[in-house]
Amino acid sequence: MFYDILAMEMMTMKIKTGYLYHIKDKYFDIVNDENLMQNHERGKKRPTYFTIKDKKILWFIPISSKVQKYQKIINKKIEKYGFCNTILIEKIFNENSVILLQNAFPTLEKYIDHVHTVDGKPARVPEKLEKIILKNFQNLMKLHIRGIKVFFADIDKLKEKMLDEIK
User: What is the distance between the alpha carbons of residues 66 and 86, in angstroms, rounded to a whole number?
Assistant: First the structure.
């Protein structure tokens, strides 16, 4: 009974920036972009995505637990460029987590499988971290607009595909 009520609440929940969600496999089948991260890892719905609501489009930013793997990549970027704003390592729910801004992509609400929960409640990153992620994402989008490749996926093509679905 509890899970039925929780499921109903999640279905009627408004999608909001800063919350974590999981995406349906159908999205990956439709967009067919090899540069997107895999949706499943050992039978679990992975990764969890930080979500930015931007009018009708949602931007999903993968969250990973593979801190050691990405710390090496961050170190190389810092060595080469003096900084790294495409990958962040921050505490989320008392654990170090990797926020993969470079793997961001646009999607639509209909492709959300479910909200990520912690202790039965919809999961949201702390407000301070949300601001850091948003600032970095906005900076990366500015670079993208100037023609600098910072995202792995072809976000323009994916966004156009999502906007076409809305029409």
Answer: 15
pTM to 2 decimals?
A: 0.87
Task: Write the pLDDT tens digit of every residue in 39-53.
Answer: 555 445 568 999 999
3-state secondary structure of 56: coil
Cβ contact 49:23 at 8 Å: yes
CB 73 within 8 A of CB 87: yes
- Helix, coil or strand: residue 107: strand
Q: For the chain, give every domain's residue range.
A: 2-166
* Domain covering 2-166 assigned CATH 3.40.630.30 in the classification: no
Dihedral through CA 74, CA 80, CA 83, CA 88, nearest 10? Answer: -20
